[in-house]
Amino acid sequence: MRSRWLSVGVIVFTAIFAPAVLYVSPVFDHRPACERGTDWARLHAGELPKSASELAAFPVTIRRSVFSAMSSDAKVRVWREQTAMFARSKTLSETQRAIIRQFNDALVPAVYSLELTAERQAAQDAVNAVVKDAKGIFKGEDAHIFDRLGYGVAPVGSFASHRFQVSEFLRRHGSVAAGMIECNCTFDSDCPPSYICDFIAPCAEVYGCGNGAMIPCDQNCVTQPAGAAVRGPQ
């Protein structure tokens, strides 16, 4: 009888706790977030976000890798949805709305080409020119509408994004750390306030920095020294 109850106990315990252990298992993956995100996107190509809201639900450490795996057309669509949500949620001047329209017109699939072509360079130059004109027109954090994936977007979660949110939270607050830190900036404008972008140690590159998230991140955000000038895309 005791053996029977023990067997029942093991089955019940497994049924209750095994799914939870499986759910948080990514927290024990020591690879950089960009590698974990890239692997997930490769294995779940049919489950990639279909909208800016779905992408925004992924933690920022994973979001860039997921964005990188999306098609060029999908990347453009995400940015246009993001700027549209931003415009609906703000009281903007006609000048600001005109800048957003110019940004959306300039952001074409060619900017995300992996080939170093004249077409890609011309397209990226056009995007950077629009954002340069936007300096001083969009104030404070709102200036990040053109260079921060998910800015101002209401997230719509999925099983995968919730799972990554939990695992990334546990990684930040637990003892498990990645073997190599992930690059998270190319310009100071990629970083939170009071931080600058600097090369402090080797890091794992991932796309998703700069205007339209169209260039690789190759450095890291560090505390800004007093009096340091903020550097952004030229």
Query: The biggest beta sheet, please?
Result: 2 strands, antiparallel
Shape from CA axes? globular
Poorly predicted runs: 8-25
Beta strand count: 4
Structural class: mainly alpha
Query: What is the residue-averaged pLDDT?
Result: 80
Fraction in helix: 40-55%
DSSP helical segment count: 8
Q: Please provide the ordered H/E string of secondary-structure elements.
A: HHHHHHHHEEEE
**What percentage of amino acids are in beta strands?**
5-15%
* Termini separation: 76 Å
What features would you describe in this structure?
It is a single chain. The protein has 234 residues and is mainly alpha-helical. The protein has one domain (2-223). It contains 8 helices and 4 strands. A two-stranded antiparallel ribbon has the order 1-4. Strands 2-3 form a two-stranded antiparallel ribbon. A hairpin with a 5-residue loop joins β2 (206-209) and β3. α2 packs across α4 (60-69) and α6 runs antiparallel to α7 (118-134). Residues 8-25 have low confidence and may be disordered.
